[in-house]
Amino acid sequence: MSTETEPAAAESLRRAPSEDPHFIASVIGAAGDHDAPLLRRQFAGLSTPDLADVMEHVPLETARTVARLIGRELPAEFLADLSWERREEVLPELPADYVGKALDQLDTDDAAAIAADIDEKQLGEVLAAADEDTRLAVEEALSFEEETAGRLMQREYVAAPEGDTVGNVIDRLRANAEDLPDEFFEIYVVDAAMRPIGAVRVSSLIRARRETALREIMRAPLILIRPEMDQEEVAQTFQKYHMASAPVVDEAGRLTGMVTVDDIVDVISEEGEEDLLKLAGVSEAAQTDTVLRSVRARAPWLLVNLLTAVVASYVISAFEGSISKLVTLAVLMPIVASMGGNAGTQALAVAVRAIAARDLTESNAARYVLREVMTAVSNGFIFAVVLATVVAVWFHNALLAFAIALAILINFACAGLAGILVPLTLRRLGADPAVSSSVFVTFITDIVGFLAFLGLATVILLS
Fold first, then answer.
1. What whole-number distance in Å separates Cα of residue 441 and Cα of residue 305?
2. How far apart are CA 78 and CA 49, in angstroms?
3. Residue 256 is part of which domain span?
4. Between β-strands 159-161 and 186-190, what pairing exists: parallel, antiparallel or unpaired?
5. Disulfide check for 58: which of 62, 113, 255, 382 has CB 3.0–4.6 Å away?
6. Residuewise pLDDT in 10s, the chain (463 residues)
């Protein structure tokens, strides 16, 4: 009997607390009873990521109650691990002095991210409770636009003069261990004006002899980041050059901070999720969202879809006479529009992904357009033959089969063209191609599909 239960017990131990319904229920119950001692015992021993994950999975009121009852006793790092949505909701429940001291314990990039989610009225009290260095670093970070390198930048970094040796650098690092960043991968070699002229990987440093000069083992920085650079561009630079960190410089080229790969992983995840949601016509989605917030995010695009559907219905009504004479048209016309819509969505997904990754540029746009159109036409020919065969066998009407085959081929060609040209056009006009492309592409494939099939059927079968 014990043999059967031990694997289950081991599996339970490996499960994250947020995935354990009994644990989540016990936290909700303790918060509902305002049982602070029990909450302390439940959260004791949890890692900060697990703690933050639990706060994400419990209802909003439970999270706020936990923050009010034992928030002051929670580790500072858990604030950095919270999503910005949940962080905005629980920060007002935490004492300002606790949040200020928490900012002092975090790297400046995390401190700035938390400060950005604090209400302006509370922010003054929080910064007043923080050290002066933290306050200045946070204020500097908040002076930059959201989603820029200035917000990601960590003000703590390790730099050494170009004439220094490996031994001196190692001794200095050990002597100032408490002042070092929590994570760093490179030591930036700077000139007398604090301009970075190279970088030494920590792995290279520990392999070299103490008397080795830094200039002998340094490599030139692959790229210098400006604080106003968009975070998506920074992430693409990291991906392109396989970087673990990059120096950030001011207008004079002086070293002011660094961006590290852990922040870039978050950016890539956020940007990818954002583009995926936009393709579906949803501006945002999080497990902490309320019904009202979800409705507000989705209703506008559903309204746009409604308007385009009305236009498509108007096109169908223009062929009311043809449909009344040949009811079969009403049975088959959704197939043409649906197949074209799917083909357009495929081309659109490829185009938006290529634009986001900067693979699709003006220099190779013609090649992308030709490829997507030829792919769509090839698929259109295949499914035109398949559908024509089905229709001929089903309705015993060769002319109807020919009409639907030709309509499928036309709609597929237009779908491939729309799927690539619509996002390119929107980008040229300065709009985000991920936001509204799907609405336009679906609209085009519906209109072309109905017009092509009903129009061809009218001409071929009823004229």
1. 11
2. 7
3. 159-261
4. parallel
5. 62
6. 444 444 443 444 456 787 888 999 999 999 999 999 999 999 998 899 999 999 999 999 999 999 999 999 999 998 999 988 899 999 999 999 999 999 999 988 899 999 999 988 889 999 999 999 999 999 999 999 988 999 999 999 999 998 899 999 999 999 998 888 888 999 999 999 999 999 999 999 999 999 999 999 999 876 899 999 999 889 989 988 888 899 999 999 999 999 999 889 888 877 776 666 665 555 554 555 567 766 776 677 678 778 888 888 888 888 888 888 888 899 899 999 999 989 998 898 888 878 877 778 777 888 888 999 999 999 999 999 999 999 999 999 999 999 999 999 999 999 999 999 998 888 888 777 776 688 889 889 999 999 999 999 999 988 6
Cα dihedral sign, 201-206-207-208 = positive
Nearest to 194 by CA among 258, 253, 108, 259: 253
| Residue 9 forms part of a structural domain | no
Q: Is residue 204 part of a domain?
A: yes
302 lies in the same domain as 425: yes
